[in-house]
Amino acid sequence: MTMTENSGGAPLVRLEGVNKHFGPLHVLRDIDLSVGRGEVVVVIGPSGSGKSTLCRVINRLETIDGGSIVFDGQELPAEGRALARLRSEVGMVFQSFNLFSHKTILENVTLGPVRVRKISRQQAGQRGMELLERVGIASQADKYPAQLSGGQQQRAAIARALAMDPKMILFDEPTSALDPEMVQEVLDVMTGLARDGMTMMVVTHEMGFARRAANRVVFMADGQIVEEGEPSEFFTQPSTERARDFLSKILTH
Amino acid sequence: MEAVVDELPVILGAFWLTVKLTVVSGVISLVWGIVLAAMRVSPLPVLRGAGTVYVNALRNTPLTLIIVFCGLGLGTVMNVQFSRDDLSLNSFWLSIIGLSAYTSAFVCEVVRSGINTVPLGQAEAARAIGLTFLQTLRLVILPQAVRTVIAPLGSLLNALVKNTTVAAAIGVMEAALRMKNLFDAHGDAIIPIFLGFAAGFVVLTLPMNLLAGRLARRLAVVR
Prior knowledge:
The complex is a heterodimer.
Chain A: E1 13-22, E2 25-35, E3 40-44, H1 51-58, E4 66-71, E5 74-75, H2 80-89, E6 90-93, H3 105-115, H4 121-134, H5 150-162, E7 168-172, H6 180-195, E8 200-203, H7 207-213, E9 216-221, E10 224-229, H8 231-236, H9 241-251
Parallel strand pairs in A: 3-8, 3-9, 6-7, 7-8
Antiparallel strand pairs in A: 1-2, 1-4, 4-5, 9-10
Helix pairs in contact in A: 3-4, 3-5, 4-5, 5-6
Chain B: H1 2-6, H2 8-41, H3 45-59, H4 63-77, H5 87-117, H6 120-128, H7 133-148, H8 150-163, H9 175-185, H10 190-219
Helix pairs in contact in B: 2-3, 2-5, 2-9, 3-5, 4-5, 5-7, 5-8, 6-7, 8-10, 9-10
């Protein structure tokens, strides 16, 4: 197994021996994984393999039963303000967008900066508009989430994550709930972020995105990391039977 | 009919007291009820337990018992006083304690059911941008929860208007007690007086119900 760390020094995130159970289900088994600064890691695997959980333990939306997770040189805080601070530094984009339904798009983007970072409303509003511009939905700023298409909502959610100036963004199946014609607009924004050097962990079924934007592909099955490597290598000659089997199922059609 | 017209200032005065009881205990119940709901969904077992015990105790005790306890238990035995010389002011505030303590338990349960309608993802997204538990509740969950339960909160307010009559039990001269006094004074006009008071309550509650319905529609959160 290779551990690519493209910028020298300590990785931004390091998981060691991480285990997680949901009742009798052992969803994460002895996970060792590091993500370097500026690295884009794509996590793929069959459903139920623990990919989403892996994503969610990094900002402690799920707690772990064993092992350790170090983010930016510090063990993940268990709770309270320290945990809130950690979360403000790790952006998260959800499958179901989860925009705040009672707030406008711009308010969604400025809530964190104003309430967590204590930036003035005016400054946060300006920066918020820049970010909405960047993801291409500035004209929707005053609408409510329910008035937007799925693709637009997900781009707003990305802007909301970016507004916190996170050190890393976690994407938990960001395009899985989208109509097919809207997948590309979201992937384009993500590809742009990857190009700009954002550290990203992306759980996805979009193999095109993985090939194009990932520095490393992590293949999971049954709660374990089965294989990891550079995308070109992984997609052309996967070394494990599990990965070959998985790829043959999704790449043939 | 004559008696109603003659006593109109007295009747209106009694209803003014009813309105004051409703507004003051309504506001206190709303605030305290929301705090109780926050306790019942908090991650701290102690707060959850305290909230549960409070709600179940108050919700399952008849209001008359609570009000009488406030008057005699708090007022007389424990000597809780709001005014040294104005007895009616004293019983006014004691009955407000009783009405608020009771109504807030129901507000809590209504708000909690509203919290349950807010998808879990909303709280996750709020926590993911670094909001604390209280910020998440205050800025994201409660605004959505309360909007979805405006109609049932309206029903609670409607019930509260009528429940203020229980304050008569400790001598608060609100509409019901005044009606009884007028019965004694005008034995020949009981039915007109009764109809006058009944109409007074309808005048108070009906617009409130309409307003709650309209607010509920206007503030509904679209998902």
